[in-house]
Write a structure and sequence with these properties.
- With 939 residues, the chain is of the alpha+beta class.
- It folds into 5 domains: 312 residues, TIM Barrel (Alpha-Beta Barrel), CATH 3.20.20; 175 residues, Glycoside hydrolase family 3 C-terminal domain (Rossmann fold); 125 residues, Trefoil (Acidic Fibroblast Growth Factor, subunit A); 114 residues, Immunoglobulin-like (Sandwich), CATH 2.60.40; 121 residues, Galactose-binding domain-like (Jelly Rolls, Sandwich).
- The protein is 21% helix and 28% strand.
- It contains 19 helices and 48 strands.
- Strands 38, 39, 40, 43, 44, 45, 46, 47 and 48 form a 9-stranded mixed beta sheet that branches. It has a 6-stranded mixed beta sheet with strand order 10-28-27-26-11-13, with helices on both faces.
- Helix 1 crosses helix 11, helix 9 packs across helix 10 and helix 13 crosses helix 17.
- The longest helix is centred in the N-terminal third of the chain and has 21 residues.
- The chain is globular, with a radius of gyration of 30 Å.
- The N and C termini lie far apart (88 Å).
């Protein structure tokens, strides 16, 4: 007789609610098994048939780091499409490829760390390429679309589980693990939280990743905002995954906690559910959690809470139901989608009529990126590749296209009179991929290739100065000089890349020659008997013998053409990337020289910027100017079709292009309101405004109408294509408070629509804008507030190209005075400030204010109501210094002196006489290294 099969455990029963299944599985796990789940690489539990699981799979614009995949435009390029439907379809393609690749390789994860919704507040941020826009509304629209695509359309099972990056107020790489973003409540609610909130509330987000930086003096990995805000936006369990190495940073670099056990426990209690630290070695994290548990710093219930969130995601992915989704990989549809995305992301910034190119034009395509298809840190490996040169050859015919890269060609002569020599043919067939292309994965870091040597003739090297004096050197066969772990210099890289780039150098003047410093190791190049290497001593003094300047080749090609296309921009691994911010908006001098050389011989010069961020260029002498982010595998094809007029450009700028570095705030100034930052507040004249982009067609706007209901403003208007070609228009809807009670944006995006119209075609667009979109965060009362009064409603082609305008009257309530007798003043709830920064009140919650540096700081609180009168003031402070309190512009009415040296969180309450009645502005002046948490009034 056959023994009956054991009953199916409830966690394996798909008929049960997910919450019950999670509870059942959680109850079957031992404490040690649950602790093991807290690391990024969670082990299998074989006795329960639970497989190993890891959080984290990069998928910013295609599946990254796992080999060949469809590569779509960078995220900032997807933002430039202003097309949520397109981005949703891209998300679907990426999720299908993730599933297909996982079927072949179990290392591919389904918990995807994407998209990045950090706002592009500052264009010098090294990771500008990863975000969508400087505007929270546009960012959330694009991010929501991408997460919906990543999630998939199945009603129960998610194809992938998206995690938003990077929580919160993260927009600098300089000192990113120790710098603190000072964010006051209005900026927090009106700017930094919005992109996260609207995307989470849309329902296709599985979690978030905290950023490396601190906010108001507290590391994001112990942020109370995870509990106070994030988890209130959805009823779904959200998985919070730490950034790599960040848990250890809490002790090692930030010194926020004394021990790793304290730090790990604090992170877990704050809401971090999965620890990404020490690579695949989970032993350190699990030991810290175990010790924290044994010391009473956390409970098993704390562990259960984190594991429950992780299991919830795994159930949604169908792991415990044998849910199969084979996905699809590199399909014709995905290839066509990559091209469509590349075309839609191209922004035409200026056009004097030279574009589209006249039939039969002879085109010179020149520049350092003319025959490049650059990848960034979060790209997959290209299966297909189209450079601008290749795209133009394909579209116009090679016989009508002249090419000049424009690199400086040099030989490096040693002090002995010999030259550096690269052995030809060193790359064997085994390191070449399809179509003979060098495979960077096989070449990078190779030590079996011969190092450089010297000989009497040497090798002509292509030298490119990418700015800041950073150089790349390339052999005639296309290989970049690189340094492997053994210290030898080889021609062994297809492109600059890697976490530490090993392909950049710097020529440093030394005597009558130059030393050649390798940036990756910081060492100088020397010539030894066994080959060229980097070392601490005996550096070689080189003479750079110029064979040809790049501008000479550019001038020759430009003189023979009807139109010159200069392709300039950045290498995503150099001077602006993760771990490294840019220092300037300007093009590198080398590329400026090439542009000047082209314009000098041919006035019909078109500049195509292929870059991860904006530049400040002088457009006046250009016949046309285009910008595209690094567009993935179809960059060249898309650019050629735009130039030829096969497609009318319709990309729009997702961030302001400033005219000068002088227009920029300090990189660490996160006060977009007080600092008048982004298109929302900037009062200068931008080079090109937010939302700008030209077309080969013209559009008229008309018939604007508005209707105000109880909870929304309904807006409609018409757009007509009055041009001669079919084209897309991006109609944009903005608002402005006419007479606000507090500083409000100059204009603010309410909504937008990208539409395709044939010649003469007209369409009516309708929008329903909730009244909440017109509100601001009332710091006096800690809530959203709608001012009563007039609001401009504006429609047009950009934030500055307003075609239609009307005014609506919205009901609301006047801002009530602050009831300071009852509530007092939380220090960080100021209306205005100067010379202060916001810091953590305690390690777990709350904010305080401190003077910035050695100077005094001032805080202003408007309309404070003292009622029938007060006679006493109290100040909750830590540290040493004074707090002076005055009404309006009067001299101080009270001075409180603190002398507490017990640490930054040892608060004391100071008391002084203070007489006031009625409504007044209150001004506080802070001196000394103190923290002010609260001011109260009584009597």
């Amino acid at each position: 007789m056959t023994a009956p099969s054991p009953p199916t455990p409830p966690f394996r029963d798909p008929r049960l609610p997910v919450a019950k299944r999670v509870d059942d599985l959680l109850a079957r796990l031992t404490l040690d098994e649950k602790i093991g789940f807290l690391h990024q690489f969670a082990p299998a539990v074989e006795r329960l048939g639970v497989a190993a699981f890891r959080t984290g799979q990069e998928a910013l614009h295609g599946v990254a780091w796992m080999g060949p995949a469809t590569v779509f435009p960078q995220a900032v390029g997807l933002g430039a499409t202003w097309n949520p439907d397109l981005v949703r379809r891209i998300g679907e393609a990426v999720s299908r490829e993730t599933r297909a690749m996982r079927a072949r390789d179990e290392r591919v994860g389904l918990n995807v760390w994407s998209p990045t919704v950090n706002l592009l507040r500052h264009p010098l941020w090294g990771r500008n390429e990863e975000g969508y826009s400087e505007d929270p509304k546009l960012t959330s629209a694009i991010a929501t679309a991408y997460t919906r695509g990543l999630r998939g359309e199945h009603p129960t099972y998610w194809r992938t589980a998206p995690v938003l990056k990077h929580w919160l107020a993260h927009n600098n790489e300089t000192d990113r693990d120790t710098s603190s973003s000072s964010i006051h409540p209005r900026v927090l609610h009106e700017y930094d939280l919005r992109a996260f909130q609207e995307t989470v509330e849309a329902g296709a987000v599985a979690g978030v990743m905290p950023a490396y930086n601190l906010v108001n003096g507290r590391p994001n990995h112990v942020s109370p905002h995870l509990r106070e805000h994030l988890r209130t936006w959805t009823e779904e369990e959200l998985l919070v995954c730490s950034d790599a190495g960040a848990p250890s940073n809490l002790v090692d670099s930030e010194h926020y906690f004394d021990t790793h056990e304290e730090a790990t426990a604090a992170s877990l209690r704050a809401g971090v559910d999965s620890f990404t630290d020490h690579g695949t070695d989970s032993s350190k994290i699990t030991a810290r959690v175990r010790k924290a548990y044994e010391r009473g710093l956390l409970t098993e219930a704390d562990v259960d809470t984190a594991v429950r969130r992780q299991l919830s995601v795994r159930f949604r992915l169908g792991e415990f139901d044998d849910h199969e989704d084979p996905g699809a990989f590199d399909t014709p549809e995905h290839r066509a989608l990559a091209q469509e995305a590349a075309e839609q992301s191209v922004v035409l910034l200026r056009n004097d009529g030279v574009l589209p190119l006249a039939p039969g034009s002879r085109v010179a395509v020149v520049g350092l990126l003319a025959d490049e298809c650059k990848l960034d840190w979060y790209s997959g490996t290209l299966i297909h590749r189209s450079t601008p040169l290749e795209g133009l050859y394909e579209r116009f015919g090679a016989e009508r296209v002249e090419f000049a890269e424009g690199v400086d060609r040099i030989r490096l002569r040693t002090s002995t009179g010999l030259f550096l020599y690269v052995q030809e043919g060193a790359a064997s067939d085994e390191v070449r991929g399809a179509e003979g292309a060098l495979d960077p994965a096989l070449l990078a870091g190779r030590t079996d290739l011969p190092p450089l040597t010297t000989d009497p003739v040497g090798t002509e090297l292509a030298l490119v100065d990418w700015g800041e004096g950073l150089l790349t050197l390339r052999a005639p066969d296309g290989r970049y000089l690189s340094v492997a772990e053994d210290g030898y210099v080889r021609a062994s890289a297809d492109q600059p890349g890697g976490w530490v780039v090993q392909e950049t150098f710097r020529l440093e003047p030394h005597g009558k020659g130059h030393l050649l410093r390798h940036i990756g190791t910081g060492r100088h190049v020397c010539v030894a008997a066994d080959g060229v290497k980097v070392a601490e001593e005996n550096p070689e003094v080189f003479e750079a013998v110029v064979v040809e300047r790049g501008e000479q080749a550019v001038a020759r090609a430009a003189a023979q053409a009807d139109v010159v296309l200069v392709v300039a921009g950045n290498d995503p691994h150099i001077n602006g990337r993760e771990t490294e911010d840019r220092t300037s908006l300007h093009l590198p001098a080398h590329q400026e020289r090439l542009l000047r050389a082209a314009r000098a011989v041919n006035p019909k010069t078109v500049l195509a910027l292929v870059s991860a961020y904006p530049y400040a260029v002088e457009p006046g002498s250009l016949a046309a100017l285009l910008w595209t982010a690094h567009g993935g595998q179809a960059t060249g094809t898309a650019l050629a079709r735009i130039l030829a007029g096969d497609v009318s450009p319709a990309g729009r700028l997702p961030q302001t292009w400033y005219a000068s570095d002088a227009d920029l705030p300090d990189l660490l100034d996160y006060d977009v309101i007080g600092g008048r930052q982004t298109y929302l507040y900037f009062e200068g004249t931008p080079l090109y405004p937010f939302g700008h982009g030209l077309s080969y067609a013209s559009f008229s706007y008309g018939d604007l109408s508005t209707r105000v209901t109880e909870d929304a403003v309904h807006v409609s208007f018409t757009v007509t294509n009055i041009g001669g070609v079919t084209a897309d228009e991006v109609a944009q809807l903005y608002t402005r408070a006419v007479d606000p009670s507090v500083p409000r944006p100059r204009r603010e995006l309410l909504d937008h629509r990208r539409v395709t119209l044939g010649p003469g075609e007209r369409t009516e667009l309708t929008f329903e804008v909730p009244l909440s979109a017109f509100a601001f965060w009332d710091v006096a009362h800690g809530r959203w507030h709608l001012d009563p009064g007039l609001y401009d409603v504006m429609a047009g082609g950009s934030s500055e190209d307003i075609r239609l305008r009307t005014t609506v009257i919205l009901d609301g309530d006047p801002v009530a005075p602050r009831a300071v007798r009852e509530r007092g003043l939380d220090a960080a709830d100021f209306d205005e400030q100067s010379g202060t920064g916001i810091v953590d009140r305690t390690r777990t919650t709350g904010d305080a204010v401190t003077p910035a540096g050695d100077r005094a700081g001032e805080l202003l609180y408007r309309a404070c109501d003292f009622g029938t009168g007060v006679t006493e003031v109290t100040a909750t402070v830590a540290g040493e210094g004074t707090v002076e309190i005055s009404l309006g512009g009067t001299p101080p009415l009270a001075t409180l002196t603190a002398d507490t040296s017990s640490g930054p969180y040892a608060y004391t309450t100071l008391t002084a006489e203070f007489t006031a009645e009625g409504v007044h502005d209150v001004r506080l002046r802070l001196r000394g290294p103190l923290r002010l948490a609260h001011v109260g009034f009584s009597g």
